[in-house]
Amino acid sequence: MQDKKRDLGGDPSLSIIVPAHNAANDIAACLSAIRASSIPVAYELIVVDDASSDDTRTIAAQYADRVIAGESQARGPAFVRNAGAATSRGAIIAFVDSDVVVHHDAIGRLMETFSSTDADAVFGSYDDKPSAPGIVSQYRNLLHHFVHQQSAGEVQSFWAGCGAVRKSAFDAVGGFDANRFHHAEMEDVELGYRLVDNGYIIVLDPAIQGTHRKKITLAGMIRSDFVRRGVPWARVLLDRGEFLEPRGLSLGISERVSALTSALFAVALLAAIALQSASFAIVATIALAAFVIANARLFMRLLKLRGFLFAAAAVPLHIVYNITAVSALSWTLVTHRVTPIEREHYRRRQ
To answer: What is the pTM of this model?
Structure first.
């Protein structure tokens, strides 16, 4: 296998870090795509294994310059990305998830964006061709693609699925918060918040793309959106005192209307069924219409990509997605209490 880093010679300008946990089914596709990429600088490819019980390390060793074994128990992507960054030699650290297959020009575009802008961190998007079959997998990945494609330019968040940050900025803010995030949660978004807090610039370039290979079930989507995304994100906002002023890519007017109308639709529909009420049925119908209108751009995009039946099937999935998000935020608001220790933790990290 050709090592492009050695072909270009010298110390690497770029360190590419791939965190991996039981990724044997995806890691070869991920790493081979990186090795086949058009990368204009010397680089090193580091895989950090998070206590895998399959052949992840053996497969990774065929592609990576270094495979770092994590601890005996899985610690989560925040910890292993930090471990990889600690051994990196490049001035820029790129992160690629083990289930992402980058496009041929993706990493080159990352480096080009650093060169052509004042960015301290850059990230991209999933493409519109997710490889996992099934309506839920396709919908969830295309939703991610849609949101990132609409959000080009300077942003206040970060995504580590295919993103990069200057090592000086990464080190200055303390890297990912591995003490707080022990699973794949919102550790990259929270890192983005701290980067912006400290005056660093983050740029989203939608042309930087990769194919997501993850299969997603309906139960898995709900569980992940509630436990791994909604609740951790709400806790971060509460700890930071930003619950009423959240920052993120999917927080525009249409998204807020979408959340409100989905909740109203669910409540009105349940009331109509339970009470056999025509009035509540009318309210549910109006709320559903408002929900579809608020998400018209998304559904039109899905219609163009996958046809009418897919777009129609995505409507109830998107309602479930929004209701899950509202439920997670509501649950956290009611149950979470910010302790002085947590406030001090955030004060120090900022």
So the answer is: 0.89
